[in-house]
Amino acid sequence: MNDRSTPSLVIAKKSDAAWAAEKPRSLWMDSIYRLSRNPGSIAGAIILTALIVAVILAPFITQYNPIEITPKERLKPPSTVHWMGTDSFGRDIFTRVLYGGQISLRVGIIAVLIALLVGVPMGLMAGFYGGRFDTLIMRVVDIMLSFPGILLALVVIAILGPSLTNVMVAVGISAVPIYARVARGSVLKIKEEMFAEAALLLGCSNRRIMFVHIFPNILGPIIVVATLGVAGAIISGAALSFLGLGATPPTPEWGLMLSEGRNYLRQAWWISTFPGLAIMVTVLSINLLGDGLRDAFDPRMKIN
Amino acid sequence: MLRYIRKRILISIPTILAVTLLVFIMLQLVPGDPAEIFLGEKYSTPEILAKVRHDMGLDRPLYVQYLDFLWKAMHGDLGRSLHTGRPVIEHLVIAIPSTLELAFAAMAISIVIGVLLGILSALKHNTWVDSLSMLVALFGVSMPVFWLSLLMIFFFSVKLNWFPAVGGGDLKHLAMPAFVLGVLNSSMLARMVRSSMLDVLNEDYIRTARAKGLYERTVIIKHALRNALIPTITVLGLEFGALLGGAVITETIFSRLGLGKLYIDSILSKDITMIQGITLFIALTYMITNIVVDISYSYLAPRIRYE
């Protein structure tokens, strides 16, 4: 008995030594390490952090009021006084872009939170219970997916009526299928793992297995999709406001600002240029970070 | 093959029915009485309202209304617009060609750009060409369609006066909206082609082709590209959907009288029958596209079939 077990003991000792030589890292630490070596995602993170700080500190950065009308300052081009010029109501564009960031980031984050809160439990339960329950939920997802792109959000807006709050709900609901699918897919993989079976054998309740044992293990892909989702939600939210279905004047919302500047393209290019640039820089930085996260969590994972 | 086609169509019938049910229910979910919206506020005495409700069939049980809705929709009758009073289908027939024209032109542009970018970055994998192509693709994902549209209008209509900013009808009017939509939707395709091409280039048969001394160009075009493009077909359905969605915004900006603009105008004016008609049409078109995509994929790659 003793003789037979010796070789494996030796191997165990070797690998112990190897482990001791390396710094022990968890899956999360590993991911963060990989993330920190990706120049794109570092750039994205830095830009995004700067943006968030600027947007939160808006009242301290600018002395102007985002909605106060100043007729004699109308349509002023960018200068040292008004860095991004003024709009047709004499409002400082830079100020409005800063305050608009608060709205756009909020729309992006709340929409994704709604999608997460609805989609993840749906996918989690569908994947966990399987069978008819799974079929039913996936049917619902299929139906939602038959409204392409921004159309599902438009359907929700058509029912709820146009408003900024409804835009968040609409964009959130339209993203539910994505999270349901990602969660379900990940659960199906994790469910077969030893620890999930062990938890079942130990007599854990279904809810406990789902939320304590499975959920933490599907967080990786969900965080990745959610990060990229915030970028998409910001664009969709701005698009809906641009179309006149979201924020209403005089709210400093980026999409709405672009739309207001549309009639002044000839005289005042700056009105719609800077909000457009703001959307693009924000979305680009989030996408850079999201792409980095995806590579960090699972280099082989692909999302379309 | 036929069995697969039949099965693929059969399994989508419940989804199609569910979509029609959802579109039907929209009428009940929208606040406000359709008869009242139809009449406008000043004429709506209770008697007239009751009569219009009866004429519109709104006083019947819901399931009768739904079956009636379904039966009529199958025969091309989607009701009348609450605003113009004309049949919804007449509005659709006018708007559809313009949207399809835009969607197909944009699709062609995005396929050309996406496939070229994808191949280029796969062939020059891990070089600056690859990084640059993927950066361009990333810009494509991050650029809001309405902003690029405005930039195009600013440069090519306002400054250079090359293309008309608004309207539709000919190629000159189609150029800018199609380009905007096509370019922005090419990124998804570019990423897909790249990863698919990279997978294929590592296959044994590519090594064999090279080993027997074929020109690199023959290897790439005849052996690699053909196989790499097959999985790409699967995203074409998604792509078409994204284009239909994107058309809503571009049509509004470029004032093209298509489905998208009609849709936004209907939402803003609460023309619920029109909203229902357009929603149903777009959802069905999209579903049929996906069925066609799946079937052609299973034909081109018989090993992989969606169950």
Structure in a nutshell:
The complex is a heterodimer of chains A (304) and B (307). By secondary structure, chain A is an all-alpha fold.
Task: Describe the structure in your own words.
The complex is a heterodimer of chains A (304) and B (307). Chain A is mainly α. Chain A has helices at 2-21, 27-36, 39-56, 58-61, 93-129, 131-145, 151-160, 164-191, 194-201, 206-242, 254-261, 270-297. Chain A has one domain: Orthogonal Bundle (MetI-like fold), CATH 1.10.3720. Chain A has 12 helices and no strands. In chain A, helix 5 (93-129) runs antiparallel to helix 6 (131-145), helix 10 runs antiparallel to helix 12 and helix 11 (254-261) packs antiparallel against helix 12 (270-297). The N and C termini of chain A lie far apart (54 Å). Chain B has 2 domains: 2-74; 97-300, MetI-like fold, CATH 1.10.3720.10. In chain B, helix 6 crosses helix 8 (171-201). Chain B is 78% helix and 0% strand. Chains A and B meet through helix 6, helix 7, helix 10, helix 11 and helix 12 of A and helix 1, helix 6, helix 7, helix 8 and helix 10 of B.
Helix and strand sequence of chain B? HHHHHHHHHHHH
- Tell me the structural class of chain B: mainly alpha
Strand content of chain B: under 5%
Q: Quick one: biggest sheet of chain A? A: none
Low-confidence stretches of chain B: none
Number of structurally distinct domains of chain A: 1
Oligomeric description of these chains: heterodimer
Number of domains of chain B: 2
Large-scale geometry of chain A = elongated
Total number of strands of chain A: 0
Helical proportion of chain A?
Answer: over 70%
Based on secondary structure, the structural category of chain A is mainly alpha
User: Residue share in helices of chain B?
Assistant: over 70%
Based on CA atoms alone, the radius of gyration of chain A comes out at: 25 Å
